[in-house]
Design a protein that fits this description.
By secondary structure, this protein is of the alpha/beta class. 35% of the residues lie in helices and 26% in strands. It contains seven helices and ten strands. The strands form two sheets. It has a five-stranded mixed β-sheet with strand order 3-2-1-4-5. A hairpin with a 2-residue loop joins strand 2 and strand 3 (22-29). Helix 3 packs across helix 7 and helix 4 (140-149) crosses helix 5. The protein is globular, with a radius of gyration of 19 Å. 34% of the residues are buried.
Length: 243
Amino acid sequence: MLNLVLDFGNTRVKAGIFKGNTLQSTTVFNSVSELLNTPSILDNVSHVIISSVTQEHITFADQIRSKIQPLIFAHNTPIPIHNKYQTPETLGADRLSCAVACHTLYPNQNCLSIDCGTCIKYDLLLKDQGYMGGAIAPGLQMRLTAMHEQTAKLPLLYVDKDFNTLTGKNTNESMLSGALVGAVAEVDGIINTYRSIYPDITILLTGGDADFFAKRLKNSIFAHPNLVLIGLNSILNHSLEKN
């Protein structure tokens, strides 16, 4: 029995095939059209869960319902942890999935997941209380784009993952330093603050820019590129166990 887990993000669709709790393979689709044109994604699949931060998943869900009924992850979907967020209906599915993945991978531990994607999202799971919430900050490219769009003269730059210069010697370098080096310092600072409150906390890093941060953070972290998929699979298995 195989599970198909689909995470519809702001820019891409990430798919994972699981057997039980074990991730067998992953595929990244650059568009929903690419996913729709890959019918083999359903081969040998018994159950499907879909998470989306947009409405792009609707077409795919409608297309596969004649073969399999997908579980659309929503704020009222049963999960294996307590959710103490005050507005669960506004909570991004990816954030809650990361918290569930922390519970799956590191049971009975305090965890902070940091999802480094379009936005940088911090999510706190306490072993004796559940999901507590966190923070959302601009991602790397968003910082550069905002400087261009909110000023008259600053150029539009793109993330250079090899850049590591603290003191920029021209405008481009100064912007890259502020956005990229500054973001690393920010993440390190957030981690230090959480560690001052929860000394035993486990830090998990995921998302498209996770490698960039993992190479530069002074704090010790565990990199998990498929954290959202792992959480969604645990949610799917939890729902199947309840039925």
